[in-house]
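so im writing up the methods section and need the Mitochondrial pyruvate carrier record in one place, dumping it here so i stop losing it
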Amino acid sequence: MASSKFQAFWNHPAGPKTIHFWAPTFKWCLNVANVADFVKPPEEISYPQQLALGCSGLIWARYSMVITPKNWNLFSVSSALAVTCTYQISRKIRYAR
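--- predicted struct ---
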């Protein structure tokens, strides 16, 4: 049973044998870096950078749901990126007030 699930995962069109798996997997590094920046002083947060990353996250999250097959790895990393960027922008706005 477990081997058949692994086999299905391995042979999936967005599985580990394709770039469609590895690109979103490495994109998690952007999220890790953004979360690590939660301790950074708000005055050092860049609006353009966070806005660009956040918009990229929203665009790719949407795209991952309209392609065939659906790429849930891309959806999850892109959604998480949009959320962390929104939080960073909110920190910068609160600091500016």
